[in-house]
Specification:
Elements: H1 2-27, H2 30-37, H3 39-53, H4 56-67, E1 81-90, E2 96-98, E3 102-108, E4 113-117, E5 122-132, E6 135-144, E7 159-168, E8 171-177, E9 185-191
Antiparallel strand pairs: 1-2, 1-3, 1-9, 3-4, 4-5, 5-6, 6-7, 7-8, 8-9
């Protein structure tokens, strides 16, 4: 009886882990998976272009943010709450642009963290998925202030995908490879 109970607990735990690990594979679109598959190459191109065409001050920011360690998303790190956030666009013309700080909010609806950029003209709303201890995946949608955000998987003009890295106690960033408009990579930096 004890063995059967233990086996049931193991089976339930294994099933829960399998569902958590497999959730994103059922949701992510093929174009977004292709962006993640080429992430390293895309990031390299974007950084090269940004360093060749950015201002010295902006290049310094880029080098500093990319040099930050990738810390674990441990149990003591709670993303929920208010954040200040800003976007940097790397690659294409102009080669590197860093925007001003805006407001972002992260909530937890019981099934995970959700991000919403709440100020500025270009917005995002989406959900985080665990990939490893040191990296999350973000699936969201881009929209313009005043529009109602649609759900993820509407189409490549609004769908967003990115890798998320925690870089300090109250700091993380999302790197969006091959966004729909303007740049080669977007970085959304969040601090509180």
């Amino acid at each position: 009886m004890l063995r059967a109970g233990f086996a049931t607990i193991i089976l339930i735990a294994w099933t829960t882990v399998a569902q958590a690990d497999g959730a994103i594979t059922r949701i992510i679109t093929k174009p977004d998976q292709a962006k993640l598959d080429k992430y390293e190459e895309t990031m390299g191109t974007a950084v090269d272009e940004a360093k060749k065409g950015g201002t010295p001050a902006d290049i310094k920011w880029l080098e500093e943010i990319l040099a930050k360690p990738h810390l674990p998303f441990s149990e003591d790190f709670d993303m929920t709450g208010e954040w200040k956030c800003r976007t940097a666009k790397l690659g294409n013309a102009p080669a590197l642009v860093i925007y001003s700080w805006f407001k972002c909010r992260i909530t937890d609806d019981g099934s995970g963290w959700m991000l919403e950029k709440t100020s500025g003209s270009q917005r995002t709303r989406g959900r985080f998925y665990t990939e490893s201890d040191n990296r999350l995946t973000y699936l969201g949608v881009g929209y313009v202030a005043g529009e109602k955000p649609r759900n993820y998987s509407v189409g490549p003009d609004v769908d967003q995908v990115g890798y998320v890295y925690r870089t300090a106690k109250n700091e993380f960033r999302i790197e969006f490879p091959a966004p729909a408009r303007e740049s080669v990579v977007d970085i959304l930096e969040l601090k509180r």
